[in-house]
Amino acid sequence: MSRAALFFMRMRGFLRKEMLQIYRDPSSIALAIILPMVLLFIFGYGVSLDAEDVPLAVVLDDPGPEARDLSSRFDLSIYFHTHYATSITEAEAWLTRRQVEGIVHVPEGFAADLLNGREARVQVIINGVDANRARLIQGYSHGILQKWIEARQARGEPALRPPVTVAQRVWFNESSVSRNFLVPGLITLIMTLTGTLLTALVVAREWERGTMEAILVTPLRRVDLLLGKVLPYYVLGMMGMVLSVVIGIFLFGVPFRGSIGALFILSSLFMLASLGFGLLISAVIRVQFVAAQISIVAGYLPALFLSGLLFDLDSTPRFIQIVSYVLPAKYFVTISHTLFMTGNVWPLLLPNALALAFMAALFIGLAYRKITKRLDG
Length: 377
What we know:
14 helices; 4 strands; elongated; disordered C terminus
């Protein structure tokens, strides 16, 4: 019998054993299929970087129609839920008790200043405890005021005339919905869980259950063992990726502007890097519980906080930015955002793909050497 035939015979038996082990282990199915769905629903519906229905106090010390016209803009906005206060003192008390997140104060004489061409002021006070939310509220308030000015100018009525009028246009995420940013990045998190956490347990499980000794006496070579451990979880991880993409596009309405082929190839590189890292942990640690904890601390948490999924890395300290360069998740977050929101921008995709290919080769190579030592030792 030829060497190729022997190789395929060994692999067929070993892969069948691994697939049966996955099938009989509900935790593997839960991590690969059910957990991605749970995370998608939590992030898709429960996590939002937008601000809507923000409680806002409105104080009209000027009772004129101009002030009421301006306040009606805030009433009709989806971003604010307005509450009218009789005085600025009452509104400040609401803000102190966190009953409102901001105050719009139209002072007395606003209409007179506006009609006479003088500087008419509108005061906006915002709760700055949450700096990001405060910036959103500030931006929404400025946008409403700008639209009010433009409407008055279009009707030929006196309006505030700022020295510069900004005509803005948003590219790639025209609706400015944070879900369109979160869901593509979440695919990185799901694949990290499947690739790192599941494979971190596979070799440790063999040692704990006492089946590693039986594997040692088989004619399996080290490359057979490595492939047999990687391929089933690669298929499982890619199934989770496909499920996540389908849910993201058809349930959450996230646009996908790239090509399916590019997504599959680049996802495979990231999946192999995650599998190699998880297998390296599994080869070093023989206790499943410890291997799982290390995979969460070294794989999942960095992918969540240091990949650019939730936070802009450019605003972090330089040391954190340097650390992020050793994380495969950082590169795939950029890839997924580009493919979903922009398209096949290869000058951006290729450098990240090369980084993932290098990491996949590095982690799988290290896992190969470590597993070899375990088997020979």
